[in-house]
Amino acid sequence: MSTAATPSREEKVLGIIETARAKRGKFRDEHITMSHGAGGKATQSLIEGLFVPAFASEALGAMGDAGAVNVGGARLAMTTDSYVVKPIVFPGGSIGELAVNGTVNDLSVAGARPIALSLSLVLEEGLSAGELRREVDAIAAAARAADVEIVTGDTKVVERGHCDSMYVCTTGVGQVDPRAQLSPAALQPGDRVIVSGTVGDHGTAIMLARGEFELDSQIESDTCSLWPAVDALLEETGPSLRCMRDATRGGAGSVLNELARASTVAMLVHEAAVPVAPAVAGAAEILGIDPMYVANEGKLVAFVAPAAVDAAIGALRSVPGCEAAVEIGEVRTEPPGMVLMETAFGGKRVMDQLVGDPLPRIC
Amino acid sequence: MRYVDEFRDPQLGRVLAGEIVTLVEPGRHYKLMEVCGGHTHSIYKYGIDDLLPENVELVHGPGCPVCVIPMGRVDDGIAMAHQPNVIFTCFGDMMRIPGSEQSLLDAKAEGADIRMVYSPLDALRIAKQNPDRDVVFFAIGFETTAPSTALTLKRARADGVTNFFCMCNHVTIVPPLRALLDSPDLRLDGFIGPGHVSTVVGARPFEFIPADYEKPIVVAGFEPLDVLQAVHMILGQLAEGRCEVENQYTRVVSYEGNLRALELLAEVFELRPHFEWRGMGFISQSGLRISEAYADFDAERRYEVPGVRVADPKACQCGEVLKGVIKPFECKVFGTACTPERPIGTCMVSSEGACAAYYNYGRFAREREVV
Question: What structural domains does chain B harbor?
């Protein structure tokens, strides 16, 4: 509503907000709370306000899903991730499978072909050997499927109660594909936004698997390796592929916000175009959460030049697991740093960065 | 989704929006308050603002149950949570609400055993699973959620549970509305009535709004077509010079309300002489506490808590924002000292609050032309 009594003050205040938004996050909290791990603003303040300044690494400062290093003539990408999912086995996957695919995907969306992984296990005293064996088998199977080798590892056991069954940490190395010329800075107004399939499957499957809601469903995690999808995209679109992200914690909504900020462009998403599985849409409706902010473990968001959009979607759809790939929006100029959504009902709204956890609403 | 998508039909929305345009007088500015935070949420989620004529403004009212909890009550809750042997349970959106020193999320990070639940029955289940611990449930909400707390206490008694306690922060809808309407500087033309609350209390309690204050109110549902239709009905009343209680949400709300739920509330709760609202001060007979009959379950009787009234920060002008006297950006601390990450006042606390909404979406509203 723009019937401002004092437009000058409004302009001033909006300017202040804009400056505050554009600023790098500051880490000023006294404790780590669960929000710092949720992938939203608090996580960002931790990364931008503590880690990046402390380590002063150019590759880290680029804040991609993987950092790149030159070794001799080769350009390598490296990434690491810890997996603490609860429960450790859920419909569609388990912690071991996730630990392989998650790290493989961080390399893949950085345009790097995954080569090798390390595997660190933190095991809780009392964990049954059967459970451990099953996860080791899951890790081996996922690594085979993703065509990566587990080349080194480590094991620690902690007292009962000091970890929840098991935590898994994997570090991955990949070789940057010469076809890839990816960078958030490459985004241009007019570029199209594509998702590789339905959003929100993994996070919803986990939430329901916890049994806190007493909802039964057939929703399965989408955990899988994204390298085949990336490989197909690179092959068909080459330099028209501007940038990719895997839409994990914080979901597709967080990825779009992160990139809009990083490249000072705006994005417009058409809600009606966003693919959501009916069961996920139903669960999200009941729990009052937005599937755009729910985690995926086998979906990427790709930004492509407008001329390449059909080729990109065609390439993705030829890959198993990406049959539902579709264009959901486009890159715009104004307002920079923001993501707008044209709702299925026909209105427009801001799709903001997440503050804290995506918690179900109570009324 | 069947039975839901019907209420989200964009074509019907466009038709309604077109009819709304014909109801507004050019040059007149309309301020309508949606009382319930659930409506605010729908308005943002579906971009309903964007479909209304520029001179129809929606003002967000005091109906977000999380935002209205005063700092002193949060402090009391945190004090209970810090007691040894207590498992403190609350709804997720309560966790971030700032008390005078810290939030429940901070208290949890410091080691208090605070658990998020989705219903009071979850809290009762935790009590049954932990018979050696005291389980406290921080109950919030209007008449909408109070019956579920009441039922939970009845269940606890029937099951012989003795380690379950409730810190009751339930509030009632009519007194704050009356307080709002009594303020001399109020500028509102009509109300979108709270649909969820009305499923319990009915449409009847809102008769005082047209009778005593000559403002129309339309009780509405929460789907986008519900909200648009309610706006249409209010503007229709204003255009015809009528002023009455109308019920848009007839598929759920009856005039008399849910009598069984009301009886239950009367059995388990009693009115407090007064209760403090963040941003609005003390309002008489606006809060519920646990009745004598259920005193065994009253956390406030079991635990000594500071019980200190913490004044709203001086610079905060949430009261004026709530009444529609000033816009969020006219508040002295808006966007500088008071932000969604570090909120000072109630309106910035929940994403449904007027200030948080303006912080996140205001710039977009200004730049609509260039989008």
Answer: 1-309 (3.40.50.11740), 318-370 (no CATH)
Across the interface, do A212 and B122 touch by the CB < 8 Å criterion?
A: yes
Strands B114-116 and B86-90, by their bridges, are: parallel
- The superfamily CATH assigns to domain A184-350 is PurM-like C-terminal domain (3.90.650.10)
Of the candidates B278, B56, B41, B331, the residue with the CA atom closest to the CA atom of residue B188: B56
pLDDT band at B160 (very low <50, low <70, confident <90, very high): very high
- The string of pLDDT tens digits covering residues A260-294 is 988 889 999 999 999 999 999 999 888 878 899 99
Q: Which residues 91-150 in chain B show a CB within 8 A of chain A?
A: 91-93, 95-96, 105-106, 108-110, 116, 118, 122, 140-142, 144-145
Q: Report the alpha-carbon angle B178-B187-B176, nearest 5.
A: 20
Residues 6 or more apart in contact with residue A101 via CB below 8 angstroms: A142, A146, A223, A224, A225, A226, A297, A298
Cross-chain residue pair B66–A362, CB shorter than 8 Å:
yes
* Gap between the terminal Cα atoms of chain A: 26
Q: Where in chain A is the domain with CATH 3.30.1330.10?
A: 65-176
B308: left (phi over 0), alpha (psi -120 to 50) or beta: beta
Read off the tokens for B68. Answer: 């209205």
Q: Residue B363 and residue A18: Cβ atoms within 8 Å?
A: yes
> What tokens appear for A23 in the block?
């600023």
* DSSP letter for each residue of A163-179: SSSEEEEEEEEEEE-TT
Kindly identify which residue of chain B lies nearest to residue A344, measuring between CA atoms.
Answer: B10
Which tokens go with B39? 């409506």
Per-residue pLDDT tens digits for A193-250: 999 999 999 999 998 888 777 777 789 999 999 999 999 999 999 899 999 999 998 8
Distance CA A34, CA A43 (A): 10
Between A and B, how many residue pairs show a Cβ–Cβ distance under 8 A? 158
Cα distances (angstroms) measured from residue A165 to each of A8, A38, A119, A209, B160:
58, 21, 16, 16, 34
CATH fold for the domain made of A65-176: 60s Ribosomal Protein L30; Chain: A; (3.30.1330)
- Three-state secondary-structure class, residue B347: helix
Question: Is the whole-model pTM more than 0.90?
Answer: no
